[in-house]
Design brief:
heterodimer; A: two-stranded antiparallel ribbon; 11 helices; flat; B: mainly alpha; about 75% helix
Chain lengths: ~300, ~280
């Protein structure tokens, strides 16, 4: 009898302890959000909606508005996603549908390798290799042949919105590719075999059997990539030029939300300045929470459907 | 499907094939170029001094990143002390009792949490540790890193624990071993290589983190004596030297990048090797 009771107590204590550790996840998430909100309050109270509509950022005068940073984040991330999505889906299709098994496996692990490189190393390569190349070769070319478009006006600085878009594209491609690959690998082979048996070419098989089945999963992967692009800090800070302006031209420098935090947060002089940066962090947090929530919902629903679906 | 001539269908098939191949080439090209540059620029600055000296002012030869490497090791070690047990025991909860709504919520939050920009983790660590302690410190840096570690370790460990055959656990329970002992002595132990793999991958991921250290550990040109002082870290040094205008410091940054990449890939190679021997 005695052993049974100790057994029970042991299990109860064990359950309580492990539960406590598991709950840490919820505590971290809620705690982080609460902390960011409470630190942003002074700035929220003082500037209200003006914070996201104005563009005056002056630490000396104590007036803060963040539109140029929002603009820079949105433009650089959206353009990077537009460039990265076709490349990623193409590569994922190459790995799953086109390449012989071994080639596909090697390609997949190279993509994983690309995903494992730390952001600061992309930044190092970006600032010391890519931006000089952009300045000497790509940007003069764009100005010469596409200079009539408002997007390619101005002088070639190297550090620019264009550089940020390129480095972000290189960084999010491996993430979107590897998730898309997982999604495509889960497409039931019966569907593909049926298409091929009806005489479809490989591309037709991909179009009618693979892509429709993977659609929401691929969308989830792309949204996840968007979240990563918006929150990316080091590499973008190193190549975007850190100038708070909103220019149509991709050749001019810009600024993003994470970059201004990275550059200014350690050296704030007033409480209000710190609070304004916290509010930018809060906006970033809310946006990335929403994006990740959407993406995970899509990916989770897809994987669940497959587990119970037709085999 | 519309009836198009076989020539058109073949042509579009060929075009698609070429485009997929081209996409793959374009995706892998930066990998080759970046590695080429890291190795080419880094290898010439790597010598014994790089691992024993602290950085020198620009213009003076023979600086190293010894304090950054040591600082990274110290902070990753301290972050692991907190982050690993929390992640692993949390994962045990999810495998043993994780059928209800609460467990689903925890899994979902862990996935969402790992997508939050790490600079925000740094801001939170700043207001929770740096402000109360009245200064930048290695402690704050470790705290930020441990917050990043927990969700990664939790999810990878759970994946590994789930793969332990139910029969093994049932056998132990049938012999009258209490659940908690079964959990630790049977489930966790048989999944050990997989768990270690996950831990190594989490450490590799955290080793490259820069943003959460910017205003927690801050960085240090010299050796730190106490955990309550600012501390150097390898990725921080790479960042500061890369954005400096000095050639000497750029060389150090490349060498640091080479060391960081070799270290991270070494970790993930060991992790993969462990994972592979288990399956075969």
């Amino acid at each position: 009898m005695n052993t049974t009771t100790t057994k029970k107590y042991g299990d109860r204590i064990f359950r309580a302890i492990t539960l406590l550790f598991a709950l840490t996840i919820l505590i971290i998430l809620l705690g982080m959000t609460a902390e960011m909100v409470s630190e942003s309050l002074p700035s929220l109270r003082k500037f209200g909606w003006g914070f996201v509509t104005g563009s005056d950022w002056d630490a000396v005068q104590g007036s803060f508005a963040a539109l140029p940073y929002l603009y820079g984040s949105v433009v650089s991330s959206i353009l990077a996603i537009l460039l990265a999505t076709p490349l990623s889906v193409g590569t994922a299709l190459f790995i799953t549908e086109l390449a012989p098994h071994k080639v596909g496996a090697v390609t997949a692990s190279l993509v994983e390798l690309l995903a494992a490189i730390p952001s600061v190393i992309y930044g190092l390569w970006g600032i010391l290799v890519m931006t000089p190349w952009l300045q000497s070769t790509v940007e003069p070319f764009l100005i010469k042949y596409f200079g009539f478009l408002p997007f390619f006006r101005g002088a070639p600085y190297g550090v620019s919105m264009l550089a940020a878009v390129f480095i972000l594209m290189i960084m999010i491609v491996p993430i979107i590719t590897s998730i898309t690959k997982e999604v495509l690998m889960a497409v039931p082979s019966s569907q593909k075999e049926a298409a091929v048996a009806l005489g479809a070419t490989r591309w037709e098989m991909i179009r009618i059997a693979v892509l429709p089945y993977g659609r929401s999963g691929i969308l989830g992967a792309v949204i996840l990539g968007l979240g990563r692009a918006i929150g990316e800090t080091m590499a973008v800070t190193m190549v975007i030029g850190n100038t708070p302006q909103m220019s149509l031209s991709l050749l001019s420098p810009g600024y993003t939300m994470p970059s201004v935090i990275a550059n200014e947060f350690a050296e704030t002089t007033t409480k209000l300045h710190a609070s304004a940066l916290m509010e930018i962090g809060l906006i970033l947090l809310v946006v990335t929470l929403f994006i990740n929530f959407m993406a995970r919902m899509l990916l989770w629903s897809v994987t669940r459907k497959w587990k119970g679906g037709v085999a | 499907m519309n009836l198009r001539s076989i020539t058109v269908r073949r042509a579009s098939n060929l075009t698609a094939t070429v485009l997929m191949g081209a996409a793959t080439f374009l995706v892998l090209l930066p990998l080759v170029i970046i590695f080429y540059h890291i190795v080419k620029m880094g290898i010439s600055s790597i010598n014994i001094g790089f691992f024993t000296n602290i950085p020198q002012p620009p213009g003076e030869a023979g600086g190293g990143m010894a304090n950054g490497i040591a600082g990274s090791a110290v902070m990753i070690g301290m972050a692991s002390l907190v982050g690993l047990p929390v992640g692993i025991f949390g994962a045990i909860y999810l495998t043993e009792y994780g059928t209800g709504r609460l467990a689903t919520a925890i899994r979902f939050c862990a996935d969402v949490l790992s997508g939050i920009p790490s600079i925000i983790t740094g801001m939170v660590a700043y207001s929770l540790v740096v402000v109360p302690l009245k200064g930048f410190s290695a402690l704050a840096g470790s705290f930020a890193l441990s917050l990043i570690m927990v969700p990664i370790v939790l999810r990878t460990t759970e994946e590994q624990l789930k793969m332990v055959p139910a029969t093994l656990r049932e056998a132990s329970l049938a012999l009258g071993v209490p659940l908690w002992r079964t959990s630790i002595k049977v489930t966790l132990r048989s999944a050990m290589t997989g768990v270690i793999t996950g831990v190594l991958l989490a450490i590799a991921r955290v080793a490259g983190e820069t943003a959460p250290l910017l205003f927690t550990a801050l960085g240090n040109q010299f050796w730190s004596r106490k955990l309550t002082e600012p501390m150097a870290a390898l990725p921080l040094q790479i960042f500061n030297f890369a954005i400096s205008p000095y050639e000497d410091w750029h060389r150090l940054a490349w060498a640091g990048a080479l060391v960081l990449v070799v270290m991270m890939f070494g970790l993930s190679l060991v992790a993969r090797w462990l994972g592979r021997t288990k399956h075969s």
